[in-house]
Amino acid sequence: DIKGFVFDLDGVITDTSILHGNAWHQLADSLDITWSTKLGNALKGISRMDSLEMILKAGGKANDFSDAEKEKLATQKNTNYIAEVNKMTPANILPGMKDFLDGLRANGYQLSLASASKNAPRVLDKLELADYFPKVVDPASLTHGKPDPEIYTKGAALLNLKPEQCIGVEDAAAGVAAINAAGETSVGIGDATELAAADMVFSNTAAVTLANIKAKLDN
Ligand code: G6P
Ligand code: MG
């Protein structure tokens, strides 16, 4: 029986995936690296430094920067990202997500957060959702990022639940892979082709309801 939900944040609860993408796009432009939607999608769910490495590699500049310079570039991106996050309000919660979270709580499901973002607490605060997630996996504690299962394994452990008692909710292919590898049920939100590995896919957050999930679980 499902007893808990382990949530991704960016692109699931709020549209910060767009803000992350814009901030990386800006950095890529400043380095004369050609941006593409495909690159933007591949970065979803990927940690800050891993994202930077992927962008530099895509631009053929993997070996052009020292570690100190890379730290500086990542900080630059993060400063731009935080400026956008600071403008956020509860109006930035994606359609239906507040009702979904309320319904889960009302039905006794436990919730934890499995976001790779070190900015997740700030985002939750801006959305006034911190109370919903007393259990947040600390991304600084991870040895491996998504698609490694570690973050979703920890998300279930924080709830004292077995992976098979948990549903993971993701917008990224790397995240769906992590949920599956952790042995949890995967709910993907977004493009069905991109998220084909998920146990179920919804095209948008408004369609993600407890009733819709239960209907697909029974199938
Ligand atoms: C999430 C986002 C990624 C982001 C990562 C790290 O997984 O989907 O786009 O790179 O978090 O975020 P941070 O806020 O720590 O740079
Ligand atoms: Mg995401």
TrEMBL record:
Site annotation (Important for catalytic activity and assists the phosphoryl transfer reaction to Asp8 by balancing charge and orienting the reacting groups) points to: 115, 146
Write out the GO biological process terms: carbohydrate metabolic process
Record-listed Mg(2+) binding positions: 8, 10, 170-171
Per UniProt, substrate binds at 8-10, 24, 43-48, 51, 77, 115-119, 146
The protein's matches in InterPro entries, at most eight in alphabetical order, are given as: B-phosphoglucomutase_hydrolase, Beta-PGM, HAD-like_sf, HAD-like_SPP, HAD-SF_hydro_IA, HAD_sf, PGP-like_dom2
**Name of the protein described by the UniProt record:** HAD family sugar phosphatase
Is Cytoplasm set as a keyword in this record? Answer: no
The UniProt entry, under Pfam families, shows:
Hydrolase
This entry's comment on the bound cofactor is:
Binds 2 magnesium ions per subunit.
